[in-house]
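Field log, afternoon session.

UNIT: design team B
ACTIVITY: writing a sequence onto a fixed backbone
BACKBONE:
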């Protein structure tokens, strides 16, 4: 496509990049699901996870996260209890998927049909990730025996939450999931373009400094000796 206009190339590359990224994430999600299935079918590992999870100081987690996330304490407590109950019942991977889907539905239902839905969905992902990282942190500090299992489950659930939210946003905006991701890629490209411009400005400043040095006098001295120089 070397002979095509730059705008056409940029559009094509953005779409292909979004598709490739989506394909990698879906493949990763599949691999995580296969690995997590073995954990969720192991009774001894489930019992150990429950034992370790019951020692987590969720009150402290909520206290630290509330200032950042500003989530209702009742919602956080309900999620904690539902998670423990679902784990205790040794639910299958499909049942966990249904639970996660229901969590997304309950959290985002108040924003359904609203222009703020995509923003609310992104905020939910950030808050979910923050809370889960706080729980993993607590498990780490307590040297939980089931840390590896929780880490794997956390990776899977984060990835699946991203998948669910991505599709909910696509449905709400009337776009495809790949188109939704393409918008983020466009924003990233814009950011990189701005960074490149900053780099160019810095390079020009460096060149100006080099020119000053080549004239045999410091830049400060030149500025002071320049009557047109503005302080």
């Amino acid at each position: 496509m070397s002979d095509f206009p730059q705008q056409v190339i940029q559009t094509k590359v953005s779409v292909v990049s979004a598709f490739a990224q989506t394909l990698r994430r879906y493949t990763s999600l599949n691999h995580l699901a296969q690995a997590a299935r073995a954990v969720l079918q192991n009774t001894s590992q489930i019992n150990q996870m429950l034992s370790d999870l019951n020692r987590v100081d969720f009150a402290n987690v909520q206290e630290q996260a509330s200032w950042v996330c500003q989530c209702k304490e009742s919602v956080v407590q309900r999620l904690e209890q539902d998670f423990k109950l679902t784990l205790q019942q040794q639910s299958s991977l499909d049942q966990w998927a249904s639970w996660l889907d229901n969590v997304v539905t309950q959290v985002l239902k108040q924003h359904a049909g609203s222009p703020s839905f995509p923003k609310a969905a992104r905020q939910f992902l950030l808050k979910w990730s923050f809370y889960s990282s706080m729980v993993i942190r607590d498990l780490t500090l307590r040297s939980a025996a089931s840390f590896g299992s929780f880490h794997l489950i956390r990776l899977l659930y984060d990835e699946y939450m991203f998948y669910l939210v991505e599709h909910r946003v696509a449905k709400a905006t009337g776009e495809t999931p790949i188109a939704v991701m393409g918008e983020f890629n466009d924003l990233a490209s814009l950011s990189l373009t701005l960074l490149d411009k900053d780099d160019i400005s810095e390079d020009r400043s460096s060149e100006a400094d080099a020119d000053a040095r080549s004239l045999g006098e410091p830049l400060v001295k030149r500025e002071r000796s320049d009557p047109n120089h503005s302080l």
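LOG NOTE: The chain is about 80% helix and 0% strand.
NEXT ACTIVITY: expression trials, pending approval
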